[in-house]
Amino acid sequence: MSASSERGLTHVDAAGAARMVDVSAKDVTARSATAVGAVVTTTEVIGLLQSGGLPKGDALAVARLAGIMGAKKTPDIIPLCHPIALHGVTVDLTPGVDRVEISVTTRTADRTGVEMEALTAVAAAGLALIDMIKAVDPAASLDGVRVTRKLGGKTGEWVRS
């Protein structure tokens, strides 16, 4: 057994080669995950977002759809992520003074969690938003992408402290 496997890394075999974990013996349970992040921008951009004055159009609507699409495409871009049936994706975008807070909750009933789908959705929504505002703010950034809560499976509920 490799040192990686001894430490409990599940995505490598005894020889250290990458593998997709076999989850077929796991129970199907209701699962959800919430991830967050923020697009940091300028007060000028926030004003344009709220007034509908951005040159490319409704940036929040585009970002919301990009987040949903990102969640659905997660196993296509994260190599060892299982394709699962998503039963719900909620993308909330909340403009603040100099940022847009992004919160995504994903839901399924499956054998593995939906944390990666929630994270990918936050990233996709944030990147789409940056694409929509970059003409006005080329320095906009996507910050703080992280899981804040997950529910379901054998570990039950986990909440970031």
Automatic annotation (TrEMBL):
HAMAP family: MoaC_B. The keyword Ribonucleoprotein does not apply. Belongs to the MoaC family. Residues 20-153 form the Molybdopterin cofactor biosynthesis C (MoaC) domain. Substrate binds at residues 80-82, 116-117. Keywords: Lyase, Molybdenum cofactor biosynthesis. It comes from the Bacteria. It is an enzyme of class 4 (lyase). Its EC number is 4.6.1.17. Homohexamer; trimer of dimers. GO terms for molecular function: cyclic pyranopterin monophosphate synthase activity. It holds the Pfam family MoaC. This is Cyclic pyranopterin monophosphate synthase. The active site is at 131. Pathway: Cofactor biosynthesis; molybdopterin biosynthesis. Catalyzes the conversion of (8S)-3',8-cyclo-7,8-dihydroguanosine 5'-triphosphate to cyclic pyranopterin monophosphate (cPMP). InterPro entries: MoaC, MoaC_bact/euk, MoaC_sf, MoCo_biosynth_MoaA/MoaC, Mopterin_CF_biosynth-C_dom. It catalyses: (8S)-3',8-cyclo-7,8-dihydroguanosine 5'-triphosphate = cyclic pyranopterin phosphate + diphosphate. The keyword tRNA-binding does not apply. GO terms for biological process: Mo-molybdopterin cofactor biosynthetic process. Gene3D superfamilies: Molybdopterin cofactor biosynthesis C (MoaC) domain. PANTHER family: CYCLIC PYRANOPTERIN MONOPHOSPHATE SYNTHASE, MOLYBDOPTERIN COFACTOR SYNTHESIS PROTEIN A. It comes from Longispora fulva.
